[in-house]
Amino acid sequence: MRVLLLVCLLLGCSSAVLAQAPADPVVQAYQRAGVTALWHRAGALTPTGNALLQQVLAAEQRGLHPADYSAQLLLTLSTQKDVASQAKLDRQLSQAALRLTAHLQRGRVSPAAAGYKLPVPVDVLDPVDTLVSLATSTDVAAALDAYEPHYNHYHLLKQALAHYRQLAALPALPALPLLPALTHA
After folding, report:
1. CA-CA distance, 153 to 167, in Å (whole number)?
2. Could you report the per-residue pLDDT of 150-159, keeping only the tens digit for each?
3. Domain of 44?
4. What's the total number of domains in the chain?
5. pLDDT for 59 beyond 90
6. How far is CA 71 from CA 7, 54, 89, in A?
7. What are phi and psi of 41, to 5 degrees?
8. Is 180 within a domain?
9. Nearest-CA neighbor of 39 among 73, 78, 67?
10. Do 6 and 87 meet the contact criterion of CB atoms below 8 Å apart?
11. Domain-embedded: residue 51
């Protein structure tokens, strides 16, 4: 499947060829958008593609780990100018976008995996709609914000996390001097 997509991205396959591919949400998103690349035009990242890359690289600001979205690979691929690397970057950005939106909506770890049985219904994202929506967005950061929970406590938790990360980044605090021994008479 990956080989078919890469060949199609390199050679510009018709939608009929892509239609014969298995139901891959990335391929389906490309078909729905009527393009062979969601994040590239004329051999360069689109402004939306670049904005998505920046959001992935800054995932820590959302309480997530950039490495979970192959940030280093994306950054490396973004510096490559050959067609194969651009095709791979386009696919990897799409996959990162799907993981990122799922983690923003549902979290990285399910409550059940953490030992909690919470009856919280979660809408399942349509991966094709998600990719097409992000690729056509004029504000990727705002589009990603829409996937986050809209609870006040979630925003308070994000603020607390940012504060503790700032504290953790400070140089080590000096050790306190030992207190004099107390003697009881």
Report:
1. 21
2. 889 888 988 8
3. 2-108+123-166
4. 1
5. yes
6. 24, 9, 11
7. -145, 135
8. no
9. 78
10. yes
11. yes
Q: Which helix (H) or strand (E) holds 163?
A: helix 152-169
Tell me the residue ranges of DSSP E strands in 94-164.
none
CA atoms of 91 and 18, how far apart (whole Å): 14
Residues 18-54: tens digit of each pLDDT: 455 557 888 888 888 888 889 999 889 999 999 999 9
Long-range contacts: 102-110, Cβ < 8 Å, 24+?
Answer: 103/64, 103/68, 104/62, 104/64, 104/144, 104/147, 104/148, 105/147, 105/148, 105/149, 108/64, 108/68
Any domain includes 181: no
CA gap 56, 145 in Å, rounded: 13
Which two tokens mark 105?
């909506």
Element (H, E) at 44: strand 44-45
Residue partners of 95: CB distance under 8 A and separation at least 6: 26, 70
3-state secondary structure of 45: strand
Q: Which amino acid is present at 34?
A: G
Token digits for 61? 């600001």
A 10 A CB-CB count for 39 gives 27
- Full-model pTM: 0.75
Q: Are 94 and 131 in contact (CB under 8 A)?
A: yes
- Describe the crossing of helices 25-33 and 127-135 by its angle, rounded to 10 degrees: 50
Q: Give the pLDDT score at 180.
A: 79
Residue located via tokens 């994040």: 39
User: 156 lies in a domain?
Assistant: yes
